[in-house]
Amino acid sequence: MSQKKLILERYGNLLKQESLVTMDDKILPNTFVLEAPEPFPGYFGYYSEIPSDSKPLYIYLVLNKLYTLEEVTRATQNIKQYFSADFSAASGTINIHNEVYHVIRIRRLDTFDQIQDLQSCYLDEGVELKKKPKKRDGQGIIRLKKFFMLEKIEDGIFFDLDEKDHGYFTIPKRLTWKHFEDITQKVKHNWDHSTFDAALGHIHEGFGVIDMVRIYNPNVNRNYLIDVRKLYLDRIK
Predict the structure, then answer these.
(1) Taking the complete model, does pTM exceed 0.85, yes or no?
(2) What is the chain's Cα-based Rg?
(3) CATH value of 150-235 in 3.40.50, 2.60.40, 3.30.1360, 1.20.1740
């Protein structure tokens, strides 16, 4: 008899770094939209299955001000009732060139032509979009507020049921981004299976916070997560 899956729905944050470019086409005039053409920079074979010009992968609609999680969630919930694509949205911030922008991260659009329509939908829902500044291309630190749908594999090890090829493992304490980057580089330089992308996150559970690391790799599995977790834990002091 097969064991029943343990599915967890949790709210939390994800912190990652991506190379971002300012979009000029396929968006509403004089609005600010950033694209991450390589959303998993630590995994260099990402485009082996997905041609980079086929569809928008990670799009960030830059907002004119901070909107609460409830406001963004309600707007997204309303739009999903009639929009042409079953897109995914998460609110957050981007720090790029020492400027912080409030954003909605968009995934799973079918074509670039849907971006303008989606922007118009958010405008109709009362979400104001930021006017386009000078180009802001560069490395950005992205913090997303998001809901996780996780399958618990064993204590401290999870698969993401909403995001393909994503796994998570817990860590014993909160890390700064620089400390996390340093540990990640040391792990990659001392492991034969180092073609993965890593992000830092946490989830809320039982009135507390659980810190974790997100791993992206198309070959991620239970043993992979166990092995990479041990390498991280050996370096977290």
Answers:
(1) yes
(2) 18
(3) 3.30.1360
